[in-house]
Amino acid sequence: MPDQAVSRRLSDQPGADFSVVAAIDALDVATRAIAGELDLDRVLQVIVDSVRELVHARYAALGIVDASGRIERFITSGISAEVRERIGAPPRGHGLLGLIIRESRAYRIPDISKHPDAYGFPAHHPPMGSFLGLPVRSGGTSIGNFYLTDKEGEPEFSEQDQRLVEMFALHAGIAIQNARLHSRVQRLAVIDERIRIGRDLHDGIIQGIYAVALSLEDVPDLMAEDPAEANARVDRAIDRLNSAIGDIRTFIVGLGADAAAASIGSRLAGLADELLLTSGARMALDLDLADVAEIDARLSIEAATELLQIAREALSNAIRHSGAPRARLSLRAQDAEAVLAVEDNGQGFDTTIPPGPGHLGLVNMRDRAVSVGGAFDISSRIGGGTRIIVRLPLATPETERP
User: Fold this and answer.
1) What pTM does this model have?
2) Which of 12, 14, 130, 246 is spaced 20 to 30 Å from 21 by Cα?
3) 235 and 298 share one domain
């Protein structure tokens, strides 16, 4: 296994500490433990139990935060259920917990009581000394924080402890989002076909995410040997994971839409909101959906499905890659066609250069349009933004009878 290979290389280095090898092995065990979990409640508990064991902390907690930065769930390890009950309500995000939420960075503190932001403990709370806290992110957004206290056998947590927890936090963020997606799929799977699609998607994303996650397992070794390559590898992996998670999340949202009941306009608006929300992007998006009623009446279900997927890919590309402060999506009926346009004023690119391996978005959009008798066109130049135009055929309106 990759982490075992890392351990062997570390142990061969002059002066290598056996504890480092043991820590790498523990990281391997911890990441594999959470990779196979699908239930959200279970994966959260496994994550917090695993991170506590990873760095030999007496106590550990995972605080899940909402959009306002307030702790909405607080999962602990090392504290019995009886003690939790005596302590009372979970923390809301004051003191050191709130500091990490606000600043979204790691803190290692030798003694909690001596830190100026310490808020104090409620009655019946066990005493705690050393502290290590850091954010858990997904898609560039902090979804929670690790809080570890009382390093066993040592006066405080080390820099190595922090690096290990930061590596584990990458896997934890993936596992949390994957469990959330699985939960969402289960809620949406109300008919056999949707169940089948949901399972296929879930199985595929587990394998894809786990494969990329394995590519990160040499990073602790590379951090010492080649920091630049370690950083580059992490950046590449995070980009691929964020892209995959965003695509699957958006597709699952589409499974929940009733094509017969929801208009193409409302589905496009919901798609745009979902992409912007989950990406954390600050892009402003203008929607122009003037001819929705006519398009709903004349666009086939198959063409509507392809139009939504094309819009998803085009918006996703604009949000992730264009760097544009503003974009525009419009849909109108023009003669016998529905015309979808997605435009941004971002960095643009050279359309004459073929996309690299794994970059099939433009090809897929073109294939989707052609599959329902439509056409796809893209114009872009470096520094001049990008414009995608899709034309899909509309059925001829039925002649009104006298």
Assistant:
1) 0.48
2) 130
3) no
